[in-house]
Structures are given as structure tokens and as C-alpha cells.
Design goal:
One of its GO terms (cellular component) is plasma membrane. Pfam families: 7tm_2. The chain crosses the membrane at residues 33-53, 60-79, 99-124. The protein is mainly alpha-helical and 140 residues long. The chain has one domain (11-138). The chain is 76% helix and 0% strand. The longest helix has 39 residues, at 95-133. The chain starts with 10 loop residues before the first helix and ends in a 7-residue tail after the last helix.
């Protein structure tokens, strides 16, 4: 068969392209959560530190947003290739391999939730302090 050698348009190339799309999808999902966490941390630092300079922390935020996903997507690719190398990698039958991707994302969500709660507490405290300083009797 002419396509068996892996030429242009072969089934082997189609599977490789599909797997590449899966890898890029997982990286983009991870980057979404990484940037969400970076933005939460940035807002928290803005509220806590009066003299906070975002430019000084920019490299760390860039690393968190774009670099952190590589730390779990690459091991996921290796594990998929070694232990679950079937089809387009769209099915997740081995839970351990799937948790390589899901665990860091769940941790980012958990940390972001804690940051969110702290931000809300800071904002509520600032609003109360502002109202008390103005002698607003509605807060009492």
C-alpha cells in the first residue's frame, strides 16, 4: 500500500498530528490555570503591599503562566507514550496517567481559592476601616 511508509497524508501522520493537538490542548489548559493563579497572586500582592512593583515580579509570573504547564505536560506525554499509547490520546483509561495533568490543575484551583478568600477578607477589612474612619453608623 502506498501510504504504509508514512508519506504525506498517511494514517501515521494523522495520528501524530492529532496527538500533537492533544498535547497543545493540555498545555493551553494548564497555561490558563497558571495565568489565573498568577493574576490572583498579583492582585493579592497589590492589596497587601503598598509599594508593590508588578514589573519586579513579572518574570516569576511569566514563568508561572507559561513555564509551569511544561512541568506536567512533558511528563504526561512521556507517560502516555509509554503506558497508554493508543489512538489520538483523547481517551483517558489509565487514571494514574490522567492525574499527571489533573493534579497540578486542581492544586492551582485550590491555591487560587485560598488567595481569593484572602483577597475578599482584605477588601472587606479595608471597606470597614474606611467606613469607620468616616463615622458611618450603618456598619455598627
Amino acid at each position: 500500500h502506498p501510504d504504509a511508509g508514512g508519506g504525506a497524508g498517511s494514517p501515521r501522520q494523522a495520528v501524530a498530528g492529532c496527538r500533537l493537538a492533544q498535547v497543545l490542548t493540555q498545555y493551553c489548559v494548564g497555561a490558563n490555570y497558571g495565568w489565573l493563579l498568577a493574576e490572583g497572586l498579583f492582585l493579592h500582592k497589590l492589596l497587601v503591599l503598598a509599594a508593590f512593583s508588578g514589573e519586579r515580579c513579572l518574570p516569576a509570573f511569566l514563568l508561572l503562566g507559561w513555564g509551569a504547564p511544561v512541568l506536567f505536560v512533558v511528563p504526561w506525554v512521556v507517560a502516555r507514550y509509554l503506558y497508554e499509547n493508543e489512538g489520538c490520546w483523547e481517551r483517558n483509561e489509565k487514571a494514574a496517567v490522567w492525574w499527571i495533568i489533573r493534579c497540578p490543575i486542581l492544586m492551582a484551583v485550590a491555591v487560587n481559592f485560598v488567595v481569593f478568600v484572602r483577597i475578599v477578607r482584605i477588601l472587606v477589612a479595608k471597606v470597614r476601616a474606611h467606613q469607620v474612619s468616616r463615622g458611618d453608623t450603618r456598619v455598627r
